[in-house]
Amino acid sequence: MKLINMLVNGQLHLGLVTDRGVIDVTELEMKIDTKAPQSMMEAICMGRENALPSLQEVQVLAKSYLSEDEITYAPAVDSPSKILCAGVNYRAHIEETRGSFDPAAVPTIFAKFNNTLAPHKGIVRRNRNSQKHDYEAEIAVVIGKRAAYVKPENAEAYIFGYTLANDISARDLQKATSQWIPGKTCDTFCPLGPCIVTADVLKYDAMHITGYKNGEQRQEGWSSDMIHNIPALVSFLSGCCTLEPGDVILTGTPSGVILGRPEGMQDWLQPGDVLTVREDTIGELTVTVED
Fold it and tell me: Do the beta carbons of residue 260 and residue 195 sit within 8 Å?
């Protein structure tokens, strides 16, 4: 299933994408006792095994639909307790930014926070202390069950679904210290969306991701290209801290970032730039850069 987090009269509503349009699940649930989740976070916390049957019932009962053009999007997950990110997780990205391939035995992890969230069709605001803003197209994992010390072979059972992220990075702030957080946690630096596709629809190792700047394709990769694949990331992180429903894991970016271009071709993000992340099943996450 494909689920949208959307704003209706300033309130968060859960949307269900169907061939006929988007069902406002929250509005329908308020009118009819379907036992369906009333919000994205409620759906995630219910888990796939409980949320999906009730949402299938909603599809049968729905009589009105919204066009996706009518949707005011919210971040696909609006209040994760943790946003954990894997760095340098594609071979070609390591080579373009470091000049050689030297993968670590364990994932390189950093964090973002809720202030970084931005929606599909939203705004990324440049940080006034940075002159080198960059994009990073990424697949994001949404956790659906509390997970602690999970083995890789069991990790898929803890995934609610997948969405897209753009790990916006202020490279000069990122490189000012040995820690990356200053360049990764500026406001609006984690667009997330446009939707969540539940994990029963997508295979973790068969997702095709591309990234665009002003319509020009800059990035391309497959989730099978990851050095530490998605089950390995879930397992590793669940051994560091307990993962909660709604937690988000960014899984790394393919090659093609601005930082990896020759110095004279590093066209850092400017106001008016339009950034798009695409995955064949999830769709497109698009934002506009502003000051």
Answer: no
3-state secondary structure of 179: coil
Residue 93 pLDDT exceeds 80: no
231: preceding bond cis by omega (within 30 degrees): no
Task: Indicate yes or no: pTM above 0.85.
Answer: yes
Contacts of 25 (CB under 8 A, 6+ apart): 13, 14, 15, 16, 36, 37, 38, 55, 58
Pair (35, 160) in one structural domain: no
Q: What percent of the chain has pLDDT over 90?
A: 89
Of 47, 70, 93, the residue that ends a domain is 70
Looking at the structure, do residues 160 and 45 belong to the same domain, yes or no? no
Residues 6 and 138 in one domain: no
The half-sphere exposure of 155 on its side-chain side, counting CA atoms within 13 A, is 21
* 142-192 pLDDT per residue, tens: 999 999 999 999 999 999 999 999 999 999 999 999 899 999 999 999 999
Q: Is residue 96 part of a domain?
A: yes
Let me know whether 34 and 129 are in one domain. no
Residue 119 neighbours by CB under 8 Å, 6+ apart: 5, 73, 74, 75, 191, 192, 193
Containing domain of residue 24, as a range? Answer: 2-70
DSSP-assigned letters across all residues of 52-111: HHHHHHHHHH----B-GGG--B--SSS--S-EEEEES-BHHHHHHHHSS----SS-EEEE
Tokens found for residue 138: 């990424």
